[in-house]
Amino acid sequence: MIRGRRIQLRAVEEGDLPLLHRWANDAELWRNLGGWRFPSSLDSTRAWFAGLKSDAANHRWVIETLEEPQVIGTANLVNIDWKNGVAFHGMMLGPMDLRGKGYGRDTVMTVMRYAFDELGLWRLDGDIIEDNAASHALYVGKCGWREEGRQRGWHYRAGRRWDRILVGVTAEDYRPLESYWA
Questions:
Q1: Is the pLDDT of residue 29 over 70?
Q2: Residue 82 and residue 122: Cα distance in Å, rounded?
């Protein structure tokens, strides 16, 4: 387990699959996430889970609260390039009522600490849909990530196009934020 202040990241277990399947089919949840969402079967969720076992370049976890253990989302480090020390990071919080309570910040800080201090990575990349102000405020405003570019009209949501905001953080950017753990 990878422990934060309020959350821990742990491996996805078979018992998590019904909840992850429900989230995978939640249109409102996916409105603010990248990629394309198609309704998926529980069988496809199981197949995805089976592929996690042998995938060293992609680490996926569930986010579990420490206070009263419950799964509240997922986080990842994917497309890990061990030679260059870079990876892509993404996160999703499922229950709407838990947003804005510090779990997202603790998750991002925990992933950065693990990536930089344990894995020895140099930088993390991510992207945010232009209209997702909460994610932008979290990553850029609270967690030290920098906006590094935009791809105009990349995402199509709700009948219109939104920019894809490219963000990144280096181990050097993270160092001044380590006081979070004090």
A1: no
A2: 10
Note the pTM of the prediction, 2 decimals.
0.90
State which CATH number among 3.40.50.880, 3.40.50.300, 3.40.630.30, 3.40.50.720 fits the domain covering 2-181: 3.40.630.30
Q: What does 99-159 look like in DSSP terms, one character per residue?
A: TTSSHHHHHHHHHHHIIIIIS---EEEEEEETT-HHHHIIIIIIS--EEEEEEEEEEEETT
- 143: tokens are 């967690």
Rounded CA separation 19/165 (Å) = 29
Please tell me the distance from the alpha carbon of residue 72 to that of residue 62, in angstroms, as a whole number.
Answer: 8
- Write down the domain spans for the chain: 2-181
Kindly report, residue by residue over 100-137, the tens digit of the pLDDT: 889 999 999 999 999 999 999 999 999 999 989 999 99
